[in-house]
């Protein structure tokens, strides 16, 4: 279509029948105009007075109005004024009807108020056709012009979203515009395609970067947190300290260290009432139950066995993720889960084989630790995002000390640390610091990659726990335990947890030309 053709007003016949409203208080005049307009080929509604006309105009769209001026109560001027003051209705063309002999001044007033044309009451049908169709052609041309401007506005808004530097393809809202088979439609297709290409490229880079950072978090946090079983076993046999008092002082060290780091980083330390619900649940799960059970169970089960059992945490999280739809099930992944749980079962069996005490029961009880960690991993996805990770851990540890301290005081198991820095005091300090740093890293890992990816902490924590047990306690793994560990690793490989989560908004830097550059090009 040539530019000349695009700018030419469309004929009334080319658009099909129009919807015309006839307004006249005289029934004979309404009937005459209705018949004449219907004969031209348009649809007609009639209004008996100005008030009825206003109501009908607000209820449905019309393409033109034939309006009598002289009507009782609400006259034509009021109807015309309402139309032209309304942002939506003002584009409807109005042809006023007059007797001409005594209403010439009123016709002039109506034209000045915005009427398109006029007709005498004894109009010629040929004149009516010509004037009505001319008004409709101009109106439809204006509609097309407004539609064009609205589409240009959408493109401009899409460009503004891109210029803002943070977007998803859906933010541009160009799908309807791209369906039009004209120049703007083709431009919208190109624009949307470029935005999608930028988004896909930035998403790939972002996911790769977050996955790499996540892997480093997994490695570091696992190595730090993996020391807990070995420290718990070292502390379990300490004279004068109960597991409860050890946990209380370790949590106190964690709280002080995290709050100090958060304050130095300028992190927010004022939780809301809603935050306290999360902190309380998290404190019970990790600060109270997990910390206490780790020290308690470590007195009866080797640290390396506890570390091996800890690998089931990842499989539990992954199973829950499949159930709730975060991960897709498949035969390979089902086999991986089966192999992983079989490896965990083998650890329990071999730990209790030939034992002369109740170590088998304690090994089974140790399964509570990875279950608590699995719940803790999923719970971290609900963390207060406005709080610094170290502040969140510090506040949680403060909350955990309250019920632990009350329990210890009531049971007579609360002990003050010795002034001299002995082995048990060093264990408490290291356990508190390791817990603080590992949990803060885990919180940041969940924010960065999601809970499913973060569950892979279990693998690095398992391997680190075995190494710490060998280094600090001189423990060794039996061939059966190594076989169980290999079975667990096969399960990890088959289950293949996904990389960093999908949620992403592209962020691009759009450089704006300086005034000097614009001036140089303008010259």
TrEMBL record:
Sequence intervals crossing the membrane: 211-232, 244-264, 276-299, 305-324, 336-354, 360-378, 390-409, 421-443, 450-471, 477-495
SMART domains: REC
Modified residues (4-aspartylphosphate): 68
Keyword set includes Transmembrane helix: yes
UniProt keyword terms in alphabetical order: Membrane, Phosphoprotein, Transmembrane, Transmembrane helix
Domain Response regulatory: 19-136
Cross-referenced Gene3D superfamilies: 3.40.50.2300
Entry-linked SUPFAM superfamilies: CheY-like, Multidrug resistance efflux transporter EmrE
PANTHER family: RESPONSE REGULATORY DOMAIN-CONTAINING PROTEIN, STRESS RESPONSE REGULATOR PROTEIN 1
Protein name per its UniProtKB record: Response regulator
């Amino acid at each position: 279509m040539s530019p000349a053709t695009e700018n030419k007003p469309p004929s009334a016949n080319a658009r099909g029948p129009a919807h015309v409203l006839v307004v006249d208080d005289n029934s004979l005049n309404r009937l005459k105009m209705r018949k004449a307009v219907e004969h031209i080929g348009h649809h007609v509604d009639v209004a008996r007075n100005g008030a009825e006309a206003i109501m009908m105009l607000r209820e449905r769209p019309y393409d033109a109005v034939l309006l009598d001026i002289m009507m009782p109560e609400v006259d034509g001027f009021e109807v015309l004024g309402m139309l032209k003051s309304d942002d939506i209705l003002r584009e409807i063309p109005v042809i006023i009807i007059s007797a001409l002999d005594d209403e010439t001044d009123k016709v002039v007033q109506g034209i000045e108020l915005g009427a398109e044309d006029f007709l005498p009451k004894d109009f010629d049908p040929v004149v009516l056709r010509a004037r009505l169709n001319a008004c409709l052609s101009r109106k439809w041309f204006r509609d097309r012009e407004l539609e064009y401007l609205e589409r240009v506005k959408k493109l401009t808004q899409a460009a503004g979203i891109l210029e803002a530097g943070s977007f998803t393809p859906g933010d541009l809202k160009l799908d309807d515009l791209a369906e039009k088979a004209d120049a703007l439609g083709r431009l919208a297709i190109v624009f949307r395609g470029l935005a999608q290409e930028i988004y896909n490229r930035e998403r790939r880079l972002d996911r790769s970067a977050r996955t790499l950072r996540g892997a480093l978090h997994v490695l570091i946090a696992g190595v730090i947190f993996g020391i807990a079983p070995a420290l718990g076993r070292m502390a379990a046999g300490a004279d004068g300290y109960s597991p409860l008092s050890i946990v209380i002082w370790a949590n106190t060290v964690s709280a002080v260290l995290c709050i100090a780091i958060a304050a130095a980083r300028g992190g927010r330390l004022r939780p809301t009432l809603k935050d306290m619900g999360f902190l309380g649940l998290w404190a019970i799960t990790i600060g109270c139950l997990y910390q206490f059970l780790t020290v308690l169970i470590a007195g009866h089960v080797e640290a390396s066995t506890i570390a091996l059992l800890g690998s089931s945490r990842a499989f539990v999280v992954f199973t829950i993720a499949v159930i709730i739809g975060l991960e897709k099930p498949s035969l390979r992944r089902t086999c991986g889960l089966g192999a992983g749980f079989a490896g965990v079962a083998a650890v329990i069996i071999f730990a209790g084989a030939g034992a002369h005490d109740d170590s088998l029961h304690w090994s089974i009880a140790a399964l509570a630790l990875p279950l608590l960690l699995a719940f803790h991993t999923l719970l971290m996805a609900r963390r207060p995002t406005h709080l610094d990770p170290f502040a969140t851990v510090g506040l949680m540890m403060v909350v955990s000390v309250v019920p632990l301290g009350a329990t210890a005081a009531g049971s007579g198991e609360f002990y003050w640390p010795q002034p001299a820095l002995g082995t048990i005091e060093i264990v408490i300090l290291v356990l508190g610091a390791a817990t603080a740093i590992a949990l803060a890293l885990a919180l940041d890992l969940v924010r960065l990659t999601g809970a499913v990816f973060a569950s892979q902490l279990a693998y690095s924590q398992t391997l680190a726990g075995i190494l710490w047990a060998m280094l600090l306690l001189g423990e060794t793994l039996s061939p059966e335990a190594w076989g169980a560990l290999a079975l667990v690793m096969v399960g990890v490989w088959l289950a293949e947890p996904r990389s960093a989560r999908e949620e992403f908004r592209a962020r691009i830097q759009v450089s704006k030309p300086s005034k000097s550059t614009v001036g140089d090009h303008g010259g």
